Amino acid sequence: MKARQLRNHLAGYAFISPFVIGFLAFTLIPICASLVLSFTDYDLFSPPRWVGLDNFRKLFFQDNKYWKSVRVTLTYVLFAVPLRLVFALLVAMVLNVQVRGVGVYRTLIYLPSIIGGSVAVAIMWRNLFGDQGIINLGLIFLGFDPVRWFGNPTAALWMLILLAVWQFGSSMLIFLAGLKNIPVTYYEAASVDGAGPLRRFFRITLPLLSPVILFNLIMQTISAFITFIPAYIITKGEGGPLDGTLLYSLYLFRQGFVYYHMGEASAMAWILLVVVALLTALLFATSRFWVYYESKGGA
Amino acid sequence: MPGKTLRKSLIYHSCVAVFTVLMLYPVIWLLMSSFKPSNLIFVTADSLVPEPWIWDNYTIGWQGIGGYTFGTFIQNTFVIVALATVGAVLSSAFIAFGFARMQFFGRNFWFAIMMGTLMLPYEVVMVPQYILFSKLGWVNTILPIVVPAWFGQAFFIFLIMQFIRTIPAELDEAAIIDGCGRFRLFTRIILPLTAPALATATIFSFYWRWEDLLGPLLYLNRPKQYTVSLALKMFLDNETISNWGAMFAMSVASLVPVLVLFFLAQKYIVEGISTSGLKA
Amino acid sequence: MRKALLMTMVLVLALGLAACASGGGSGSGQTPSPSSASPGGSQAPSGSSPEPVTLRIAWWGSQPRHDYTLQVIEMYQQANPHVRIEPEYASWDDYWKRLAPQAAAGNLPDILQMDLSYITQYAGNGQLEDLTPYLNREIDVSDVSESALSGGRLGDKLYGFNLGVNALQVHYDPALLQKIGLDKLPDNWTWDTYKELGQKAKDAGLYFETGLRPEVFFAYYLRQHGQRLYSPDGTSLGYDNDQLFVDYFTMTRDMVLMGASPTPDVIAQIKGIEDDLLVKQQAISVWQWSNQYVGLQTAAGRPLEMHPLPGPNVKQGMFLKPSMFFSIAANSRHKEEAAKFINFFINDIEANKLIKGDRGVPVAGKVKDALKPLLPPELQKVFEYIQWAEQNSSPADPPDPIGAAEVMALFKTYDDMMKFEQITPEEAAKRFREEANAILAKNK
After folding, report:
1. Are A182 and A294 in contact (CB under 8 A)?
2. Predicted confidence (pLDDT) per residue in C224-235, tens digit
3. What percent of chain B has pLDDT over 70?
4. What is the pTM of this model?
5. Nearest CA to CA, how far is C50 from chain A (Å)?
6. Can you say whether residue A98 is alpha, beta or left, with left for phi > 0 and alpha for psi between -120 and 50 degrees?
């Protein structure tokens, strides 16, 4: 019995060993280094100097921009993540049919997500939301006032949120794969029982999709917290107007690679890590109330 | 009855098509811009139709920079992306099986570590990691980009895990009783059943690495090693005239491989369990 | 098979840990002090058959610069068969992203293009070699004026070799200027003229200018009043009268509020020189560096004129700016060879026929003279302007102190806030001074 248990443990480690080895070899040292650096004054060019908690003190008590970036990021995460997920799920359900040509739709709708963080997308987005851009033309056509997307901090942040929503493809794809994993027989059985589409959605789709929803929720939250490429390319790296799009990671990047305050950047990164880790743990904790696994092997 | 299905399908197609076009407007703008003369792209930004319609952006852009054509850059990118994607997907599936189906000491600890690696912004790990790879003598090789991929990638591990966990555990037990070893259980039963997740991971891995700029920027310094993402930025300069046309044209051209892969892989996502799955 | 795999993994792991142990003493992976890599100039045997040498050279720029620089390198390699040069080029953003980790790892290219705004940061921390010992040995400076050289000096050390000279200018479209009733910008104009012209431009439905970058033109304004933006030692702001700040920024803000200068959000929408407001015939002038004239002219596709900045005290305010430098990394193992290449780049006339002043007006007199008749007319104009500026300028400020990037961000923040009327110039002056001084005080 004991030998079998031991063999179970060993087998577990055998399977995760690539991760463990890779982590020890390539990731652990840099991560530890960044933690140590967060207690130093380091400009990349000369040796780091130990300053204790100074970086954290400065960020918390002397840096208005830091708190500004925290507020901007929280707003961004709060709107971008749910909107993107709901949108992705809806589209995935529409495209989860056996109709001729649906593969083409899927590919085309996924296209916006492929052009990702390139310069081209920045140019395009700036053009779309420009004073004479199609969005403002549309607003005027519908009888609204045009919006100065680049002049108003809130509007500028929404420009980024909309970009995140528009690039919903990766979440959609995962939902699509999840939907495909739900055996058709379940729906057939439900239809025989006379369940309507809404009932089928809430009784079958949602519960069986819940592991995938959990995955998307956690991953999108994490990535929304650490993303900055869209803000970087659309605002020319500055996070304007009036710091309205100064996402946390953009500010972190500026600290590290524009001002060369790698110590403060590392401190920011570790604060973010702790906050996001707590949030993720919280999501995992709530998951036992709403996520349904077919196999109970999991935690 | 056939009339009703036809009507339904007509409504479906027209709704989805309209939605697709709306979503695609910016992409169409990008495509059309690639046929406009470079200096007119922004001046005529509100018109979709190129006037005049030219192909020069493609021919000039393809010539690349510094004597290397875009063919070289695409080939460089493809080698890196293919090696890294195969490694990342296979190793991640293997690791995911361990996390999802094995009970072992320290499992939650390692899972937490794995999730943690996703949460630390890369910018602060970048410099220490560069120093590490530079001490290994790996700068100016593709090793710093490709090798770590073979040790699993947290995003894919977690993704595949979640899919494995939707597979009933009774299947494993049945297999074990049939005398299947764990490794065979993994390759024969779990892998085929998670095909949609594997296809998804393949698409993501391929595309993320295709567009990755930072890795190639740091580790590939010689122009003959440059990837597409690096080469695209060579057309641009803040201070003087930029070759926007060539940049747009080559952006479009470099989308083609990703699109082809997506179109091929999305079939596996669709066919997934409902056709091939439960026969195992 | 499995064993072999295991062995490789163990090896990789061991290597990783070793790297940690050697590099992470104080927690970070530090460079093994740059000096250990370079046993001075003693190792270069200047015998009859020189040893083969590989040099890495890095620069930023766009396609035309990449193309001709590669040609120059090819030329140099043919003349010096023992030297092989590996180019590493990138766009401006990417260049600096790549350079910083290389510096941290002690792995900088032998020759690297440097900018005035970064040179203090790199040189101040021992990453760059002092070029003074190479002058008139490997690098012939008999034909280069001290004022052109001095741009790369920090204290008594020369950390960057100036590749070309720039000066500030107003570039304008004479056809648009005529719409406000002028054939040309008046000689001896002043900031008051600027305000008047702004009013006229606004009445004609045009912008007078496309926005003045505060860190550049406020610095000029300060120089006109005998003040400097930074103190000589770089530990505080160099001007002590906030009234200058208030006057200058009230003026530029009023231009925006009146509609004679674009608001920050209009500027944010501009994607490149191709949709610049002047190019689109919405603005009369662009205030920028002399080397940007040719690009603007090409983008506009119609004749443009150039003019000095407004007075009074133009000579006191004007200065020549090094457009960019070549520096030699302290970790380079072939510093003499690197210096020889820099010499070639600066003094060789054939090479400069390819360079065509893209990196600023050449610093070597002979090269400048030989080049001038061969240039297209718009470039000749730039050369002439620089010649004029040489007689009508005062010595440039020393390179920006460490922390200048943050001060620049402060300028941007307060400039925008003033233009969006979120803060008065008086309040901004006070807060700017406090925050900028706090940043610069770290250099003490």
Report:
1. no
2. 999 999 999 899
3. 93
4. 0.88
5. 33
6. beta
CA angle C288, C289, C290 (to 5 degrees): 120
The CATH superfamily of A64-290 is: MetI-like (1.10.3720.10)
Chain C: touching chains (3 or more CB pairs < 8 Å): A, B
Interchain CB contact of A22 with C (< 8 Å): no
Q: What is the pLDDT of residue B2?
A: 57
pLDDT for position A103: 80
- Per the CB < 8 A criterion, the answer to whether A293 and A211 are in contact is yes
- Does domain C38-165+321-391 fall under CATH 3.30.565.10? My reply is no
pLDDT tens figures, A195-254: 788 888 888 888 889 989 999 999 999 999 988 888 888 887 888 788 899 999 999 999
Q: How confident is the model at residue C288 (pLDDT cuts 50, 70, 90)?
A: very high
Domain boundaries, chain C: 38-165+321-391, 168-319+398-443
Find, in chain A, the residue whose alpha carbon is nearest to that of B236.
A119
Helix (H, G, I), strand (E, B) or coil at A191: helix
C326 in helix, strand or coil? strand
Nearest-angstrom CA–CA distance, C321 and C319: 6
Quote the CA–CA distance of A161 and A165 in Å, as a whole number: 6
pLDDT over 80 at C126, yes or no: yes
What tokens were used for A213? 């929803």
Q: Is A66 on the interface with B (CB under 8 A)?
A: no
When CB atoms are compared, the residue of A19, A91, A112 closest to B151 is: A19
Exposed, middle or buried: residue A56 (CB in 10 Å: 0-12, 13-18, 19+)? middle
Q: Same fold for the domain at C38-165+321-391 and the one at C168-319+398-443?
A: yes
Amino acid in the structure at residue C394 = S
List pLDDT tens digits, range B166-222: 888 777 777 777 767 788 888 888 888 888 889 989 999 998 898 888 899 999 998
ipTM: 0.87
- CATH class of the region C168-319+398-443: alpha beta
Contact between B247 and A120 using a beta-carbon 8 Å cutoff: yes
E-state strands within chain A: 40-41, 49-50
* Six-digit token string for A147: 């919006």
Question: Which residue is closest to A36 within chain C, CA to CA?
Answer: C27
Nearest CA-CA distance, residue B51 and chain A, Å: 19
- pLDDT score for C15: 40
In chain A, what are the domain boundaries?
64-290
Closest by Cα among C182, C116, C156 to C397: C116
pLDDT of residue A126: 84
Straight-line distance from the first to the last Cα atom of chain A, in angstroms, rounded to the nearest whole number: 23
| Cβ pair C361, C383 in contact under 8 A | yes
Type of residue at B139 = V
Average pLDDT, chain B: 85
Q: Are A131 and C93 in contact (CB < 8 Å)? A: no
B 34-73 residues inside an 8 A Cβ radius of A: 42, 45-46
